[in-house]
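Course assignment 3, question 2. Fill in each field.
Student: A.L.
Task: Predict the tertiary structure for the chain below.
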Amino acid sequence: MHTPSDAVIQKVELGQVWQTVDPFLFCVHHDDDYPEGDEELGPCAPLVGRNIGMDFSGRDGWSMYHGSLVPGFPQHPHRGFETISFMRRGYMDHSDSLGAAARFGRGDVQWMTAGSGVVHAEMFPLLRNDQHNETELFQIWINLPASDKMVEPHFSMLWDHEIPKHTLLDEAGRPVHVTVVAGQVVEGHRAPAPPPHSYASRADSDVNIWHLGMSEGSSWTMPVAGHPDSVRVVYVFGDGAVRIGDTEVQGGEGAVVRCDVPISITDDAPGGRNTDDGHTTEVLVLQGRPIGEPVVQYGPFVMTTKADIQKAYADYNETGFGGWPWDVNDPNHGPDVKRFARHADGRTEELAGT
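Answer field:
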């Protein structure tokens, strides 16, 4: 722990899995520079030397994760929490035990409440065979209160064009670009609603998820949180750096900050290096009111007691959480570059590719 300033309570180093604070369980930043795709939508590259089925090596700038042909995460169960997948580049193919499916890409967010139990696959199809398939996303796990651990599973698609994006100018006219995945920054411009039984759907949860793209030297004052008990964590990723109050936070570091007073965050990247989007520094902010209940996690299940975990495994072994309706464990949705969602109730959405 570093000595706090009046704004920063604690600094942490970011590893492969980022430390989070209640109500969040963890955050992973996947950033893979996949090669061209082959006819099976997998990497057009040899897989020799990789631990297929458990490849988190980052070798040559990318991993297969649990995939064997297409990178990603073949069918696996969840109970008792929620997953939020925020795509930055590339595509994800979702398939689940409810019969629902989706393909989503740059700027889209999938929010899935696992509740009583769902099995899903998350695959990264390499749709381009003439260029690299850069794939970047955040996957964020957020807890559910004990009273909602066993709600009906549900997933929502928050499409890029629906998500609020603001260009906020500081006193010198320098822009800070803010994407609002959850909550709001500008009054009257709230993010699309999460699933109906999401913790974030509670008015007093104060869940906010923001992405900040800062230009060279720009500054923004983060507003006071909506609830006095809320906790806010600022993660700086990539090569940038910021000053929060009088504390420098480098890329690869996070900071738990006060959210009961306005706090300035200022780009402090040396040399003004820009990302592909023209940002000098990129930041993810996670904020929420703690649930304040016991957390017992074992693998893909997050409950409040060890007995609940044991029952989750017993239920999954007995029912498969409804069974797996797909022919393979790692389904993808074909070579066409298009985004869509087919929900468990039969409702469909179709969008152009990105």
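Instructor remarks: DSSP finds one helix and 25 strands in the chain. The mean pLDDT is 95.
Grade: pending
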